[in-house]
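Example 279.
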Amino acid sequence: AHPVRLSVQLFPYDGGRMLLLARDVTALEQADAMRRDFVANVSHEMRTPLTVLSGFIETLQTLPLDAQERSRYLGMMGQQAARMQHIVEDLLTLSRLEGSPLPGLDEWTPVQSLVRRCEQEARALSSLLTQDVQRPHVLQFPAPETLQEAGEIAGAATELQSALSNLITNAVRYTPAGGSITVEWRREADGTAVFSVHDTGVGIAPEHIPRITERFYRVDRSRSRETGGTGLGLAIVKHVLQRHGAALHITSTVGKGSTFSVTFPAIRLRAAAQPALAP
Ligand code: ADP
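Predicted structure in complex with adenosine-5'-diphosphate:
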């Protein structure tokens, strides 16, 4: 049972009696605490790159640096600015999601284009992260022919793309060079469809799994930062999926890898939507 917080007030009542007013303020206090945590987290996340940036500015102002050193410092400053930009963009995405109406059944997104785009992003990020090593990632995606038959998902293309791309880029970011990332799309007998991303990466300990979709929650802060993470990716994923009635399921073993599967409830087959013309 969860503890309940009550606000209790006593009022004098006629005839010397007292009136006791008890209100359940559990939800109110929880929402308050979450808001406070969130503001503290955002401030902390922004403060780190700002501190580094001010340090670099001071160095540039005070030390006699040659052109090469100057450009190295400017490069590092650019990285910090980009980091803050990512955080702000992800925060804006989250607040936009919170404020916008639920997607209806009037927009359908082809699975084929979603998965193709994921593949492009995975390949680009993988070659960026493994450019200095001999062994690149092994990336496996569904064959183009199978995706032609995959149909369409009910929902907004940009939102769905950002959710699936986040899962893919995480798989690449948390898998050391030489590991593999496998993406599958399959239709279940009950009419739902499952998009799954399997990686042979660092894995996630069971105690962290329930929390990794929280804003700014990370298992390993430095690894997240090194690969350009904001700690908001899975919070965005969770939000988008909830809005589309889709469920996220995570299984993982530390040191072995993780599987993130998304079950979509509403799938429309292209064949059904556009019946072939009789000859
Ligand atoms: P981040 O920007 O830190 O990656 P996310 O919200 O995308 O933020 O993910 C939260 C945390 O979940 C990550 O910091 C990482 O610890 C963990 N995580 C997410 N995806 C994976 C994965 N495929 N393998 C291992 N850990 C992961």
